[in-house]
Amino acid sequence: MTGVWVLVGAVVVAVALGTAMRARDGRFRPSRGRRVAADGGPARAVVAEPSPADGTSPADGTSPVAAGPDGGLRAELAALGEALGERATLLQFSTAFCAPCRSTRQVLAGVAALVPGVRHVEVDAEAHLDLVRRLAVRRTPTVLIVDASGREVRRASGAPPTRQAVFATLAQIVPADEIVPTGQTVPTDGTKRADSDSSEPPPAG
Question: Where are the domains of the chain?
């Protein structure tokens, strides 16, 4: 009988953890200002291991930030043949068989096309495991909002962020009157809305 209760307890804990993770999926979270050592533990797949010298990485997926001589991502993007956006960069980490990554690409590319000075850069996580490890990217899609200096401001992972959430996050580093499309309103808290808002509307049939 004890074994049954242990099993029930394990199921309850697993369900609670799964629910908590889904609640965070696609929501932007503040960046952490802690640096990850470049020679930290080995990467496996797209899961970043914390550096032993740095302690544990944050469980909620917030960033331990930023490599590069200035603590920003400018050097990392340059190594990929990419440049920072004049005002902000939407840095997306994807994998080949990640279905939500395609929706995320649509959302971010659409926002970048609407907001002057904002670039969308997509990185193949499996082909750049070194960078994945340094930036503590654990799941795909992961989206980093990077300011003009290369500093990570916020990140979201696990599901496509909504357009409204991306606009609201950009409003922290770009004047709001320059990022709000005509006829739309943007929440100031960056909260996630329904999944139906997470991508461009389908074309009329």
Answer: 2-197
CA distance 168 to 174: 10
CB contact set of 31 (below 8 Å; sequence gap of 6+):
62, 63, 65, 151, 152, 153, 154, 155
C-alpha span between 73 and 118 (Å, rounded): 15
Largest CA distance in the chain: 64
Q: In 3D, which of 62, 78, 73, 86 has the Cα closest to residue 157?
A: 62
Amino acid at position 40, single letter = G
| Average predicted confidence (pLDDT) for the chain | 72
Reported as a single tens digit per residue, the pLDDT across 96-155 is 999 999 999 999 999 999 999 999 999 999 999 999 999 999 999 999 999 999 999 999
To which residue do tokens 């499996």 refer? 126
CATH topology of domain 2-197: Glutaredoxin (3.40.30)
Query: What are the pLDDT digits (tens) for 35-52?
Result: 444 444 433 334 444 434
Q: Residue 118 pairs with which residues in a beta bridge?
A: 88
Q: Which residues pair with 147 in a beta bridge?
A: 88
pTM attached to this predicted model: 0.63
CA distance 130 to 174: 30
Give the integer Cα–Cα distance in Å for 98 and 112: 21
Give the type of residue at 29: R
